[in-house]
Design goal:
about 575 residues, alpha+beta, BirA Bifunctional Protein, domain 2, YbaK protein, Rossmann fold, nine-stranded mixed sheet, 15 helices, about 25% helix, binds adenosine-5'-triphosphate, binds magnesium ion, ATP-binding, Pro-tRNA-synth_IIa_bac-type, aminoacyl-trna synthetase
C-alpha cells in the first residue's frame, strides 16, 4: 500500500482520555477510534494487526482439530433461563426486547448457544470428541470500560467449546487447547505465562489464564522460578506460617484517635508497627454481612473469601451498612462487641496478642485486644493475598509477584451446562449421559493491546514481527524522480517476495515521516534519502533495536527475508 492512498490518521498529541499506553498509542497510530464508551471502530492499520492475531489463532485452532462455526450475537432469553444465568449473570448481560416483546440478550459468551446446538445434533459417543470454535464479537456491559480495546464493551473473542464422553476425554481436549494457546502466544511474539486461575462465575473444576507479562497489567501473578508454580494471586497460596512470640495479655484500653482512620495513620499515631493492627473489613455476601479480620500490613483476597463463602460475589459494605452494623462511621470497625455478624479471620491473626482494632465508635480504637478474652475466637482461614518473597506452596522457595494482562482463559466446565440444558449422548452401553465440556477464550483485540503494552518505547509502538500490520515501511525522503523510482522498485520487489510493505510516498517533511514511522511500529524502516544519491545505498533501520545498516537496493529483500 502507498501511504498517500491509505487511511492513517495519526495524532501528534496524546489524547487526554487515554490512561493506558496501548490505548494512547492505538489512537495516535490511527488503529482505532472510539464510537461510544467501550465501543471502538478498527481502522485499516489496526484491523490488519487484529487480523494477523486472528489468523494465528485460527491456524492453531484448526491444527488442534477444532472446527470453526459462527454463532449468533443475539440470543433468546429462554436459553439463559435454562442455565439460570438470565438472573445470575448480572448487569454485564445486555438485555432487550424485540418488537414482539420477546426477551433477548447480546452474547457475552456462548455456552448456552453452543450447548443448545450440540444437544440437538450429537447423539452418540461416536460423535465425540468435538471441539467447536468461533471468532466473533461479544458484548459485555462492563461496569468500567477502560484502556481502549483492552476492556471494551464490544470486543472480538475467539471462543472454543469442547464436548467429550468423560473426564479423561475432557483432560485430553483441555491439554490440546493448552498447547494450542502456548503456540498461539509464542507465535504472536509475546512474553507470557500460563497461570492457575479462579473459575469465577463460569464455574468448573480447573482453569488456566494466559497472561502477557507487562508492568501495566491489571492482574498480579505469583511465580516460582524454582519449581514453575504459577498462579493468579487471586488464588495463589503460600506455605507461610505465622508465629508470634509468647506475650502476656495486657488490659484492654480504649484510646481516642480523632480523625485517625487508615492503618498507616493509626499505627503512626499509636507508635506501633502496622503488623500490630488488625483490620476489620465488612463485606456483603449473599444477603448477609460478614466481618473479616486480617493483620494491618496484609491484603485481603476477595476471591478466596468469595470461594470460602460459596457466593458468586462479595462486595465491600457501604458506609450505611457499616454504620448500621458497627454503630460507627467507616474506619473504626472492630470485633469487640460486634454482634449479629459472622466473624472470620485470616491465619495471620492466629496467635497474635495485644493487637489494635477499631472500637466501633467514631474516633476511637482499642489497644491490647485479645480474641478469646475480648471477643469469641473467630474461624481462621487462608484469606490473604500472597506477597513477594512468601514461600511457594509447592516447593517452599520464595515467590515472585509480577503483573500481567489476561489474554486467554481456559476452563474445565464438566457437566455444569450439559446437565442444566440436558445435553446428553448415548455411551457404548447405550446409556444416556451428560456431555463433559470445556471452554476456551482468547481476547483478540486485547491481545493486540497487550502486545503494545509489552512492546513500545517513548516514540511509539514496536510490533513483534509476527503480528505487525506490515513488515516493512519505505520512507522516501524527497520528491526527486530518482528517489521515487528506486523506492517503487524496492516496494514492488518486497511485496512480490511476500514481505508486506507500506510505502510512505507522501509529500511530507522527513521529520514527519520519521515520527509516524516510529509511532506505528512497523518492524523495518527502509530509508531512501540523500545518501542514496551519494552512495547508491538505502538505510534499513530495525524498529526494535534501532540498528541501522546501509544496503544496496537489491540486498534489501534478502536482509528482510533472512531475519524472519
Ligand atoms: P476479565 O477478568 O479481564 O474481565 P474475564 O475473565 O471476564 O476477563 P473471559 O470470560 O475468560 O474473561 O473471556 C475470555 C477472554 O476474553 C479474556 O481472557 C480476555 O482476553 C477477553 N476479554 C474479556 N473481557 C473483555 C473485555 N471487556 N474487553 C476485551 N477483551 C475481553
Ligand atoms: Mg470480565
Amino acid at each position: 500500500m502507498k501511504l498517500s492512498e491509505y487511511f492513517l490518521p495519526t495524532l501528534r498529541e496524546d489524547p487526554a482520555e487515554a490512561e493506558a499506553v496501548s490505548h494512547r498509542l492505538m489512537l495516535r497510530a490511527g488503529m482505532i477510534r472510539k464510537l461510544a464508551s467501550g465501543i471502538y471502530s478498527w481502522l485499516p492499520m489496526g484491523l490488519r494487526t487484529l487480523r494477523r492475531v486472528e489468523n494465528i489463532v485460527r491456524e492453531e485452532m484448526d491444527r488442534a482439530g477444532a472446527l470453526e462455526v459462527l454463532l449468533p450475537l443475539v440470543q433468546p432469553a429462554e436459553l439463559w433461563k435454562e442455565t439460570g444465568r438470565w438472573d445470575n449473570f448480572g448487569k454485564e448481560l445486555l438485555r432487550f426486547k424485540d418488537r414482539k416483546e420477546h426477551d433477548f440478550c447480546l452474547g457475552p459468551t456462548h455456552e448456552e448457544v453452543i450447548t443448545d446446538l450440540v444437544r440437538r445434533e450429537v447423539r452418540s459417543y461416536r460423535d465425540l470428541p468435538l471441539i467447536l470454535y468461533q471468532i466473533a464479537p461479544k458484548f459485555r456491559d462492563e461496569i468500567r470500560p477502560r484502556f481502549g480495546v483492552m476492556r471494551a464493551r464490544e470486543f472480538l473473542m475467539k471462543d472454543a467449546y469442547s464436548f467429550d464422553a468423560d473426564e479423561e476425554g475432557l483432560n485430553r481436549s483441555y491439554e490440546a487447547m493448552y498447547e494450542a494457546y502456548q503456540r498461539i502466544f509464542s507465535r504472536c511474539g509475546l512474553r507470557f505465562r500460563a497461570v492457575l486461575a479462579d473459575t469465577g462465575a463460569i464455574g468448573g473444576s480447573e482453569s488456566h489464564e494466559f497472561m502477557v507479562l507487562a508492568e501495566t497489567g491489571e492482574d498480579r501473578l505469583a511465580l516460582c522460578e524454582a519449581c514453575g508454580y504459577a498462579a493468579n494471586v487471586e488464588l495463589a497460596e503460600s506455605k507461610k506460617e505465622f508465629s508470634y512470640p509468647e506475650e502476656k495479655e495486657r488490659p484492654l484500653e480504649k484510646v481516642a484517635t480523632p480523625g485517625v482512620k487508615s492503618v498507616e495513620e493509626v499505627a503512626a499515631f499509636l507508635g506501633v508497627p502496622p503488623s500490630k493492627l488488625v483490620k476489620t473489613l465488612l463485606f456483603r455476601a449473599g444477603g448477609e454481612v460478614v466481618a473479616v479480620l486480617i493483620r494491618g500490613d496484609l491484603e485481603l483476597n476477595e476471591v478466596k473469601l468469595r470461594n470460602l463463602l460459596g457466593v458468586p460475589e462479595v462486595e465491600m459494605a457501604d458506609a450505611e451498612t457499616v454504620k448500621r452494623v458497627t454503630g460507627a462511621p467507616v474506619g473504626f470497625a472492630g470485633p469487640v462487641a460486634l454482634s449479629g455478624v459472622r466473624i472470620l479471620a485470616d491465619l495471620s491473626v492466629r496467635g497474635l496478642r495485644n493487637f489494635v482494632t477499631g472500637a466501633n465508635e467514631a474516633d476511637a480504637h482499642l489497644v491490647n485486644v485479645n480474641y478469646g478474652r475480648d471477643f469469641p475466637e473467630p474461624e481462621f482461614y487462608d484469606l490473604r493475598v500472597v506477597s513477594e518473597g512468601d514461600p511457594c506452596p509447592r516447593c517452599g522457595r520464595p515467590l515472585a509477584v509480577t503483573r500481567g494482562i489476561e489474554v486467554g482463559h481456559i476452563f474445565k466446565l464438566g457437566t455444569k451446562y450439559s446437565e442444566a440444558m440436558r445435553a446428553t449422548f448415548l455411551d457404548r452401553e447405550g446409556k444416556e449421559r451428560p456431555l463433559v465440556m470445556g471452554c476456551y477464550g482468547i481476547g483478540i483485540g486485547r491481545t493486540v493491546a497487550a502486545a503494545i503494552e509489552q512492546n513500545h518505547d517513548h516514540a511509539g509502538i514496536i510490533f513483534p514481527r509476527e503480528i505487525a500490520p506490515f513488515e516493512a515501511l519505505i520512507l522516501t525522503l524527497g520528491p526527486e524522480a530518482e528517489l521515487m523510482e528506486i523506492s517503487e522498485r524496492i516496494y514492488h520487489t518486497l511485496n512480490s517476495s511476500g514481505v508486506e510493505t507500506l510505502w510512505d510516498d507522501r509529500d511530507e517533511r522527513p521529520g514527519v515521516k520519521f515520527k509516524d514511522a516510529d509511532l506505528i511500529g512497523i518492524p523495518f524502516q527502509i530509508i531512501v534519502g540523500r545518501r542514496f544519491k551519494e552512495t547508491g545505498r538505502v538505510e534499513v533501520k530495525e524498529r526494535s533495536t534501532g540498528q541501522r545498516e546501509d544496503l544496496l537496493p537489491e540486498e534489501v529483500v534478502k536482509r528482510l527475508q533472512g531475519s524472519a
